[in-house]
Amino acid sequence: MGLDGEVQKAQRAAEASEEPGQRPPTIFSKIIDRTIRADILYEDDKCLAFRDVAPQAPVHFLVIPKHPIPRLSRVAAGDAELLGHLLVVASQTAKVEGLVDGYRVVINDGKRGSQSVYHLHLHVLGGRQMGWPPG
Fold it and tell me: Fewer CB near the last or first residue (10 Å), C or N of the chain?
């Protein structure tokens, strides 16, 4: 999917996340409860790491908290330990995946950040040289 498609997807997701009432389950909550299959690389009581279904690099996996947090900009001080845990899991899983020469960690936030799933997630991308600036 091209940049325009990703932006449109993010805008639709933002609109859905703003609707009043109960939010429908996200694709990530369905992966956590196993109603959708995923290639899981790591799991513990706090988080899950799995391969991205539309990889943007030779190695591309996601790390998500099991407790849904919609956006990075909506975290609370009490989420600090969980956020640190997500980064540690990202680092350890990157090593297992052979990313010894480096990788990129991306967190999209909100419509302008092209967030398409409103459940906090870390993208870990590697296996090739990353360009700069990123977007």
Answer: C
**In terms of residue numbers, what domain contains 94?**
3-126
Chain segment 42-79, per-residue pLDDT in tens = 999 999 999 999 999 999 999 999 999 999 999 999 99
The catalytic residue among 67, 85, 119, 121 is 121
40-78: burial string, b at 16+ Cβ within 10 Å, e else:
ebeeeeebbbbebeeeebebbbbbbbeeebbbbeeeeee
User: Is residue 67 among the annotated active site residues?
Assistant: no
The DSSP-derived string for 70-87 is S-GGG--GGGHHHHHHHH
Quick check: is 92 in a domain? yes
